[in-house]
Amino acid sequence: MTSTAAEQAAMRRALVLAATPGVPLGPNPRVGCVLVDDDGATVAEGYHRGAGTPHAEADALAQAGSRAVGTTAVVTLEPCNHTGRTGPCAQALVDAGVRRVVFAQADPNPAAAGGGDTLRAAGVEVEGGLLVDEARALNRVWTFAVEHGRPFVTWKFATTLDGRSAAADGTSRWVSSRASRLDTHRLRALCDVMLVGANTVAVDDPLLTVRDAHDQPLAHQPLRAVMGERDLDPGRRIFNGDAESVHLRTRDPHAALAELYARDRQHVFLEGGPTLAAAFLRAGLVDEIVVYVAPMLLGAGRSAVADLGITTIAHAFRPRVTDITVLDGQSDGEEANVRLTLTPERH
């Protein structure tokens, strides 16, 4: 049996519910659920509000009560099949008397997968894959982290037209415009780790918090992580009480990401210097690149990325451009910057 027009409409509504503003971006996936009757009318809606709260199916079933009997549950993610902080949603749907379940994305988490099989074994009709691309896009970072067993890495940097991140004397304030810096804070807020190298902490002393347009810290702050084996001055700003911090005493990008993943972190915002960026690029551990290009030339100074071991143009690193946005800085008395978003090609 294929999905009906009513189920397709319900799935689109479930995707909207899953993306409700204010819902945490991790560590759990965002999920929405809509219960519909045989006429396609909505009986109840629900969505997951973050770790430790009822799952979307449980939320919708609580709203429906006895009206859930005989309904179709339309869910953006395959109902879970395990007991964690909450019980298994697959069994809850069976117990509630739901007749049919339509889900978008199969659960990639082996600890929670198998809900569809449990439902079928109990006599519930099950269909998967409805609007699966939209569902995967909704939870792109969570999906990536679960499927790859490591956090998704976004490398961000600012550069001049000739690829310099700082002048010959070391000055870099400001290569990027105010509009670009505000945009950077917007992107920082989407991540759960800010990662820099030990040299950046020692030399630049960054604060690495997420701030608003008035330079005030937001309520939610990512973990501030510094990577490197050298000892650091505990008075550096990254170790203050403005946000949680951790020193990853390794120079191996794989080891650093493994430790962060063990801490239930799924999205790393890489803002270190050229050496750290090169280490992650050479290890094949950059999944997205965000670069702010300023309309200026320096002719000398620090490169945006260190040596990648490339000696011929044929071996050039060639990420695919996925977005180009002009950030207008005229109101701040600055020239406009261009933000490029790129995706490395996987081989």
Automatic annotation (TrEMBL):
Q: Name the Gene3D superfamilies on file.
A: Cytidine Deaminase, domain 2 (3.40.140.10), Dihydrofolate Reductase, subunit A (3.40.430.10)
Q: Which Pfam families match?
A: dCMP_cyt_deam_1, RibD_C
Q: Is Zinc among the key words of this record?
A: yes
Enzyme Commission designation: 3.5.4.26, 1.1.1.193
Q: What keywords are annotated for this sequence in UniProt?
A: Hydrolase, Metal-binding, Multifunctional enzyme, NADP, Oxidoreductase, Riboflavin biosynthesis, Zinc
| Biological pathway | Cofactor biosynthesis; riboflavin biosynthesis; 5-amino-6-(D-ribitylamino)uracil from GTP: step 3/4; Cofactor biosynthesis; riboflavin biosynthesis; 5-amino-6-(D-ribitylamino)uracil from GTP: step 2/4
Q: Which metal ions or organic cofactors does this protein require, according to UniProt?
A: Zn(2+)
Q: What is this protein called?
A: Riboflavin biosynthesis protein RibD
Write the gene name. Answer: ribD
